[in-house]
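Schema walk-through. Below, the input block comes first and the output block second. Nothing else is stored per chain. Lengths vary across the set, and this one has 318 residues.
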Amino acid sequence: MKDSSTSEDDSNLLVIVIDTNPFEWEHASSPLRLNDALQHILAFMNAHLAGRHDNKLAVIASHVGVSSFLYPKLNEVDQPGSKQQTRKNANVYQNFQVVNDAVLTGIAKLLQDPRPTLEEKDLGSSKIAASLSLGLCYINQALKSDGMGHVKPRILVLTVSPDSSSDYIPIMNCIFSAQKANIPIDVCKIWGEDAVFLQQAAHITEGIYIRLDDPHGLLQILMFSFLPDMFSRNYLCLPGQDQVDFRAACFCHKKIVDIGYVCSVCLSIFCSFSPVCSTCRTKFAFQPLLPPARRLAPKGTAASPSSSRPSTPTPMAT
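--- output ---
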């Protein structure tokens, strides 16, 4: 359905969340290294900036245990090349050079920091929820500074890490916030199994979710599926999701469950029954079970008077 709120004269703000989890990128079964993937991503960023003179870009690194801005820096204004000291290259457009140097330098600093412990890796993969929160806050600031309403934001998540069930509640809060603000969340799963929570994020916010069959074709997918802005998407047939996994994580053990118990007051999800909700402390009142009925004696026979204890009921076939 065509979105009438967009126009071809709108400025496009793209917030890219890059998953830099070293445990996944450096795994022996990884089909694509981080350095090679960055070359694809940088070319995509430059293509977005080249689309319009007023297109804006923000890049956030989702690392293990930390989430930080790569471009622009928090103490700098949102203009390419404003305060960044970059080397001059006559063969490269200056704005492209500023963004490329900022992203590469920021990721190099993250990877040079001490490696996270195995406990941090087990507690969660990369900080996708924190990165989404940073992106939404940055978008909110950009929308407030745009008095004419010509900035159309969107978020693109490039991830390789599996779902972290402990981030279910923060991710869902970000999803509903993006849905209320009409901010689509696009997700590109470079390899691995489907990200359940991010798949729901793309479906709820009317974004695009793609899991790559060949990670070496990352640039092609980025250019043809995620580069078109919101106005151009009204006239394109973009890939969609045939099936969406709507499983949730329980609030008690942070595990993804297929069937669970839901509190009728706060809608908390639990994998096992509890008479008291651990979230809102609501006590559930249930009607006590009736005592088992006596088994009727067959016709023509009398029940033995000496048997005072009721017999065990037999199961009935349905």
